[in-house]
Amino acid sequence: MQVAIIGAGYVGLTTSACLAELGHDVTCVDIDSNRVSLLRDGIVPIHEPGLEELIRKNGANGRLSFTSDVPVAATGAEIVLLAVGTPKGAGGEADLSQVRAAARTVAKAVRPDTVIAIKSTVEAGTARLMRELIAEVRGALDFRVASNPEFLREGSAVTDFMQPDRIVIGADDHDAGARLVELYRPLTKRGVPVVLTGTVNAELIKYAANAFLALKIGYINDVADLCEEIGGDITAVSRGIGLDPRIGTSFLAPGPGYGGSCFPKDTEAFASIARRYKAPQPLIETLIGRNQERKRRLAARILGELEAPPSKAKVALFGLAFKADTDDTRESAALAIAPILRQNGVAVAAYDPMARVKIGGVVQHDDPYAAADGADVVAILTEWPEFAGLDLKRLAKTMRGSVILDCRNLLDPRRVSKHGLRCISIGRAQMPRKASYLHPPKAGKKAGPAAAAPNQV
Ligand code: NAD
Ligand code: UGA
User: Fold this and answer.
1) 391: closest CA among 417, 419, 423?
2) Is the minimum distance from the CB of 8 to ligand 1 under 6 angstroms?
3) Tell me: the pLDDT tens digits for 253-264?
């Protein structure tokens, strides 16, 4: 099929490359002409495993091209997918201005019978609104609008697109639905299930899915806090509850609070729509506040671990990306924590294997040991595998202090302590346990609740 994709960001680029790989003829458009020039030269402006290879391959075989001319791309297309940004609006709702602008441009250009599907994450009712807007600009109702939300994750976008758990298609008329089902035929014939429903349902599915996943993370973070107080181990607890298939093991890793370009804005947008329709989502409202507070509390925790006054102390942040395998720093833990440390006068250094971002007063290094040089505390904020293999002997020598705050539970605290460092992990008893029921305390010493639970996973 002839497909035009509007927006060459994480979603637009991945969708373009993957649909071309599945055999479609794809034109990907972005108003950012620099981005388009880079892409035409085979340079991919984002880090996404496997994406560059797909773009080069399908560019070379002629199935994928790039332009900054939206009308030209839209004119030739049977299906137009809108994959532009929907950032957070002033009141928490999704800012639909990019979607509206793209819809207007497309409206004038598309040929009759084109299906215009919204892939961006938008609030329920947007497809219907865009249908009205396009009809008004076009002066005719000879096109169809549909919803086709995307569920890929950054860092595994290509695999997620090519092997999705499901494809959601929202269409209010049979033809639009059938055309989108056809688009995904190469995947559905491999057994990928399709949820074919109305546009409002498809739009709701996207927000409700993201909010639910974010809730899982928020919940496990709260349980992790309890584990620390009681002396439990969140790794065991998480696995123990996740093996119940009704719960599932994924998205139960505690951390510094979820970040990224999606969960924070999408939970806020979901809560905002719900308030507007007078069907509030108190679980989500609470989650949003807890997640923001979590990052502030981590900053306070770092400050509390300093052995020198803040103005004489140094902290090294390991990880600027909001998660591993991406260079995206939007709403990352580092972006929330570093400014608080700086406001308290702490010198802050940072290292990330891939992400670069300017944070006022933060010195970024290309090497973790250079960042940790003279640091009182090292805080691991992103779960880059590289951090699990840190040379602890070298780190201990380089640091001035001895605290490693491992917000992703990558390190074994006992191994860390062998190098004279103290590892604070998330949701685990903080001191190496001296007694357990397997190794009872010496007579006269009382075992607290921490001693009561085995620490095996
Ligand atoms: P992004 O910011 O990386 O990319 C959006 C692109 O659209 C930009 O390159 C911008 O220049 C371009 N653009 C804006 N207006 C345009 C116009 N009128 N014509 C042509 N191009 C235009 O955004 P993203 O991360 O790819 O997200 C896009 C949408 O998909 C959002 O709604 C997001 O919530 C949703 N989503 C994102 C992810 C993800 O992992 N990033 C996953 C699923 C869904
Ligand atoms: C998320 C969803 O997973 C995708 O399905 C969705 O398509 C996308 O949002 C979107 O709508 O844009 P993404 O933001 O790329 O994808 O990344 P995730 O892997 O979901 O991680 C989000 C945040 O949660 C990260 O900060 C991550 O570190 C954190 N997280 C994730 C945890 O703290 N614990 C976990 O167990 C999982």
Assistant:
1) 419
2) yes
3) 999 999 999 999
